[in-house]
Amino acid sequence: xxxxxxxxxxxxxxxxxxxxxxxxxxxxxxxxxxxxxxxxxxxxxxxxxxxxxxxxxxxxxxxxxxxxxxxxxxxxxxxxxxxxxxxxxxxxxxxxxxxxxxxxxxxxxxxxxxxxxxxxxxxxxxxxxxxxxxxxxxxxxxxxxxxxxxxxxxxxxxxxxxxxxxxxxxxxxxxxxxxxxxxxxxxxxxxxxxxxxxxxxxxxxxxxxxxxxxxxxxxxxxxxxxxxxxxxxxxxxxxxxxxxxxxxxxxxxxxxxxxxxxxxxxxxxxxxxxxxxxxxxxxxxxxxxxxxxxxxxxxxxxxxxxxxxxxxxxxxxxxxxxxxxxxxxxxxxxxxxxxxxxxxxxxx
Length: 348
Description:
Blueprint: H1 14-19, E1 31-38, H2 39-42, H3 51-57, H4 60-64, E2 66-73, H5 76-85, E3 90-94, H6 95-105, E4 109-113, E5 121-126, E6 139-142, H7 148-159, E7 168-171, H8 175-183, E8 189-193, H9 194-198, E9 206-210, H10 212-217, E10 224-229, H11 230-235, H12 237-256, H13 258-268, H14 274-284, H15 296-307, H16 327-336
Parallel strand pairs: 1-2, 1-3, 6-7, 6-8
Antiparallel strand pairs: 3-10, 4-10, 5-8, 5-9
Helix pairs in contact: 3-12, 12-16, 13-14
């Protein structure tokens, strides 16, 4: 099981208090589930994807009766390969990857729940690069070819009228590696989350070229979801439902008390300043998946966006209903009630 190293929590945190109404199930009633995550999400990602760590370390999975084993992999392509091979039950992958699996390989994969809506990504570059247009002909660090940051970065560049063919992509791995490479001047630009960018502190040689809100406006609001093969969703329905309920509940608790999230993040990520975490919490406020982030309108919008990309020309058109299973989040609304208030993940 992946854990956050040295995470020390007060005995009665808000999240723990909120969960006291859910009785812990007997050990014999625990159901097992394996989930592939990109390496950054398997640790403490300072975005709403931190729910993967939080649900484990704060005991949400245990109280909902599911024993989750995280398999740490280096990006979406490897997570998708693990899912395809049957090595894991579920994987956190991009919708674009799910479409490729379905359209190109007839892999019957469906998304069930998501960890975020509205990206927290940005494009950072050397200070000498003032605009997106200045990126043409320059090196651009990505996790891997086909990874989420690569796909979204290409989408945003295209929105600005810059052809991805004019960018020199360099696959060098995880976000912290990419931002350090940028800070050291080894690459000219990269796409990372706001939290990862903040981790390097003040560096005069780099700056934000496309801020998170603008990046989010020019890219799909829903980019990833936790998916499984149809056969697995049927075979392990109860375990996946418990997993879904736990993720949604922790999302609601963290949105309700951002100071609590900041305290936990500060313990888990001593490399980040409290000021940067406070800024990140403000960015996260509307992005928590308090209802699971599987609204049909957002799924359809994302698929339309993907199919409008030049590299999807000729790819068989798959309807959002064929790459998603809404029954899990719908059941969560029965189990937990539908959340109301603010945020991008509100049901109409």
